[in-house]
């Protein structure tokens, strides 16, 4: 059972104290039941002793204190477990490759981090209570068996049937619950579409209607499945209550037929049966949570292991150092996107390209020709399925991949700008000021406490801030994927004629995906891509000859 394994692995230090306190709390509730029984018998004979009252008060205190400890510890442990699972998931995402993360999709990752962790937070404390109530049942069972074996067989035969029926029903509902989760995911997908594409949705009534209809249908499906399962729960709940009354009936009508002493056996047995009802009800309530928790854990395990598989393929990536290269290249590099069944979709290669320090290389090509895919390979974000990656003429070893990636500052077409300037070390305010001025962003944004004052800016302005971060990072290789496409003509000019040559003069390897043919003359080398293949249109030799002529 995943749940048990998780608890044993994650919170071994509290397991023993939890078990002891749960047993103590169970002992206190059983003592309470026995005291009620004793007190009623004493009351029937005249008066109740003060000792019983004192014991009663002590048992209640013990019960309250131990129950509180169990609940608080279990809830805190649940949060600890969730924190560790989340951190593990973050680490797995971080260490995985881009293709695996894209294949999983945002919706699945979000739902694991929200819905599944919520299920765990809700159910883990209840499951501990379930264990505690099971201990109460054991104590009650011993007491009942001591009173009357017949009463014990009736009560516990009944309890086992009640919990088993509930568990079997929940197992049968497993598929329905999985369908409900799938429908919930479709709702999440629709919500992402609506929020990410809010402008597009707002701009078209028919698009908005289509989207809302789809989300509505998914939500209605989730409602239909959940209502159906809840209707069944309703019936089961009513049946369970009816069974409890039947149990009391058995105690008062059947037990007297087999027990000799009515006052000493039937009354306490009926009382005990009444106390059995609570724990059995709790167990019946908690049992479905086992299925829910197992499903949530299975989903989180599946996601983590999918990501880990990608990590294992590239095990030990961050182990070896790699000094800043002056020359990088792809040699006969091959890569294919694959669908969920592993069938190849778009392929690139074999690609052979090289990039030199102190040179500007442009990569051109039509939409969908494979430029961004080539950049993913060159930057080590997607794994090569053939060929190799060279740094200073030497193949980059698997153990050097992270060190290799760390030499890049890349601004991809879909660049994400964080407000905080992560990983740039100590920030020199004067240098930041100068950079903001150079990027013509003075007065619009400033940097304070390691963060931009705002990133609510235009797309072009955000890309300028990304360039500022790249400047601060001062890495030897710079990659710009259609960076200038979002800039105005004036700043395009600044980019191609001032910023790129400045990077080149500082000995950087500059790689630029661009459609701006007006500035093709600025490149030392131009590669053109077409349907996943590459050809060199201008080498550094031809560029030098062009300059001379
Ligand atoms: N994550 C992905 N999964 C499957 N196929 C993909 C994925 N990303 C891109 N592709 C496919 O790879 C092909 C090349 O895409 P790529 O983004 O590399 O082209 P590009 O030259 O950069 O295009 P553009 O100029 O439009 O940005 C496309 O036909 C696209 O269908």
TrEMBL record:
Keyword Metal-binding: no
InterPro entries attached to this UniProt entry: AAA+_ATPase, ABC1_TM_dom, ABC1_TM_sf, ABC_transporter-like_ATP-bd, Cyc_pep_transpt_SyrD/YojI, P-loop_NTPase, Type_1_exporter
TM region positions: 52-72, 124-143, 149-168, 233-259, 265-286
GO cellular component: a single term: plasma membrane
Residue ranges annotated for the ABC transporter domain, each copy included: 328-547
Residue ranges of every copy of the ABC transmembrane type-1 domain listed in the record: 21-292
Localisation per UniProt entry: Cell membrane
Entry keyword Transmembrane helix: yes
Domain of life: Bacteria
One Pfam family it belongs to: ABC_tran
Record-linked SMART domains: AAA (SM00382)
This protein's UniProt keywords: ATP-binding, Membrane, Nucleotide-binding, Transmembrane, Transmembrane helix
Molecular function GO labels: ABC-type transporter activity; ATP binding; ATP hydrolysis activity; ATPase-coupled lipid transmembrane transporter activity; peptide transmembrane transporter activity
Protein known as: Putative ATP-binding cassette transporter
Species the sequence originates in: Nitrospirillum amazonense
């Amino acid at each position: 059972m995943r749940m048990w394994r998780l608890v044993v692995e994650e919170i071994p230090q509290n397991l023993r104290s939890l078990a002891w306190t749960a047993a103590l709390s169970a002992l206190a509730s059983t003592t309470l039941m026995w005291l009620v029984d004793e007190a009623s018998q004493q009351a029937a004979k005249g008066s109740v002793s003060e000792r019983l009252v004192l014991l009663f008060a002590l048992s209640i205190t013990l019960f309250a204190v131990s129950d509180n400890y169990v609940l608080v510890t279990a809830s805190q442990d649940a949060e600890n477990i969730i924190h560790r699972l989340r951190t593990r998931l973050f680490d797995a995402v971080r260490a995985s490759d881009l293709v695996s993360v894209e294949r999983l999709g945002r919706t699945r990752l979000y739902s694991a981090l929200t819905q599944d962790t919520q299920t765990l937070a809700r159910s883990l404390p209840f499951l501990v209570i379930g264990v505690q109530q099971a201990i109460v049942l054991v104590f009650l069972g011993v007491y009942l068996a001591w009173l009357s074996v017949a009463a014990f067989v009736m009560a516990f035969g009944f309890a086992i049937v009640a919990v088993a029926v509930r568990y079997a029903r929940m197992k049968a509902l497993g598929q329905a619950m999985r369908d409900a989760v799938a429908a919930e995911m479709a709702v999440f997908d629709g919500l992402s579409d609506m929020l990410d594409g809010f402008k597009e949705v707002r701009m078209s009534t028919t698009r908005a209607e289509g989207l809302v209809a789809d989300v509505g249908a998914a939500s209605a499906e989730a409602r239909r499945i959940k209502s159906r399962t809840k209707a069944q729960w309703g019936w089961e709940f009513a049946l369970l209550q009816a069974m409890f009354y039947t149990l009391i009936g058995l105690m008062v009508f059947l037990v007297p037929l087999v027990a000799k002493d009515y006052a000493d056996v039937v009354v306490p047995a009926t009382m005990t049966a009444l106390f059995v009802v609570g724990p059995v009800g709790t167990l019946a309530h908690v049992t479905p949570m086992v299925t829910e928790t197992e499903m949530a854990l299975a989903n989180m395990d599946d996601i983590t292991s999918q990501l880990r598989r990608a990590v294992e393929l590239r095990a030990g990536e961050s182990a070896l150092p790699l000094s800043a290269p002056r020359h990088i290249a792809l040699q006969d590099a091959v890569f294919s996107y694959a669908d969920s069944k592993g069938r190849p979709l778009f392929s690139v290669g074999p690609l052979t390209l090289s990039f030199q320090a102190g040179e500007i290389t442009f990569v051109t090509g039509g939409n969908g020709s494979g430029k961004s895919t080539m950049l993913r390979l060159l930057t080590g974000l997607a794994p090569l399925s053939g060929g190799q990656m060279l740094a200073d003429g030497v193949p980059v070893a698997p153990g050097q991949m992270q060190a290799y990636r760390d030499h890049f500052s890349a601004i991809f077409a879909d660049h994400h700008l964080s407000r905080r300037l992560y990983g740039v070390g100590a920030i020199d305010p004067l240098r930041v000021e100068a950079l903001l001025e150079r990027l013509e962003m003075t007065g619009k944004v400033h940097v304070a406490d390691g963060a931009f004052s705002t990133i609510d800016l235009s797309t072009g302005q955000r890309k300028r801030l990304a360039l500022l971060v790249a400047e601060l990072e001062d890495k030897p290789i710079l990659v710009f994927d259609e960076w200038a496409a979002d800039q105005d003509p004036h700043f395009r000019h600044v980019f191609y004629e001032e910023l790129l040559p400045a990077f080149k003069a500082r000995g950087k390897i500059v790689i630029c995906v661009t459609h701006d043919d007006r500035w093709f003359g600025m490149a030392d080398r131009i590669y053109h891509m077409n349907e996943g293949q590459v050809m060199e249109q201008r080498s550094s030799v031809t560029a030098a000859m062009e300059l001379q002529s």
